[in-house]
Amino acid sequence: MNKNLLRSLSDNTLNSIISDLEKLFEDGRCCPQMCNAPAKRPCGAPEEGIKVASFAVHDGEEPPVSGWNGAGNIFFSGCGTRCIFCQNWPISHENNGRVYTIDEFCEKITKLLDRKVHNINLVTGDHFLGKVLKSFSKIKESINVPLIYNCSGCHNEELFDAVLKTMDILLFDVKYCDNSLSARYSEIKDYTGPNLKCLEMLLDAEIPWIENDVGLLRRGLIIRHLVVPGQIENSLKVVELLNHYKKRGLEFKLSLMSQYFPAYKALELEELNRKVDPADYRKIVKKVEKYEIEGWIQDLC
Ligand code: SF4
């Protein structure tokens, strides 16, 4: 296969990206929460090491990502977004996991690669990106699969610039078109500002969609949107926004997700303590089809 982006970077360039990211972490500026690094960081990141809940072969991503051997997922502990309906709440809110040194992290990556995963998929890892890239730099030549950044869609601009330089594939969320929802359902007062900035950066980056000859994704952008009950207007606006970017030339596939179920603190809110209404979901699907946005539409079960 062609080299992934990481292997095509010179050591100097990669080291400079890593030290910029480490500084962002030191200062507590790695996500829009801009926490300024208090003793207990809101995202749960420890000062040293990389805290991970699990290293797993995962078959639940989109077909060209999971393929038949699975994606090599790394579920980082803690999160800067912390949606109240998060289905992985023991990891994102309660910070379950174990802290790994850089060398231990390298060993775990090597073991995943030994299992012939099709990629390495970093799940919600803004708070560890500098240390993760430092680990990767030590075993760079053996990482012969694409790197994936699986993320909330709301990022510090400097961090996202590093993502675009190092990650082959993005699984990028567009969760909200309305900041009152991000403030209510996630711990982000301004989701739309950073999210739109990232979309502009994605447009400028001109990421091509490249699959290999057996249909595995090598490079590309998948935009994900999880439909939340009662928030049909938000979802319709998200589809409008994506159509706007499609018309401006953004190359992507949409993954429309219906898999919401009430979990964690959503159980305490009447509006969220239910499933997505099938009639609402059909309206959203209809809009996706009207705009001929390609991708995957989950069935509502
Ligand atoms: S990712 Fe964590 S450490 Fe970084 S700014 Fe956000 S909350 Fe603070």
Describe this structure in words.
Helix 2 packs antiparallel against helix 7, helix 7 (157-166) packs parallel to helix 9 (192-205) and helix 10 (232-247) runs parallel beside helix 11 (278-290). By secondary structure, this protein is α/β, with parallel strands linked by helices. It has helices at 5-8, 11-27, 63-66, 89-92, 102-114, 129-138, 157-166, 179-185, 192-205, 232-247, 278-290, and strands at 50-58, 71-76, 98-100, 120-123, 147-151, 169-173, 210-211, 217-226, 253-257, 295-297. The model has no long low-confidence stretch (mean pLDDT 97). It is built from 11 helices and 10 strands. It has one domain: Aldolase class I (TIM Barrel). Strands 1, 2, 3, 4, 5, 6, 7, 8, 9 and 10 form a 10-stranded mixed sheet that branches. The chain binds iron/sulfur cluster. Iron/sulfur cluster (SF4) binds next to loops. Iron/sulfur cluster (SF4) is lined by residues 28-31, 33-35, 41-43, 45, 80, 126-127.
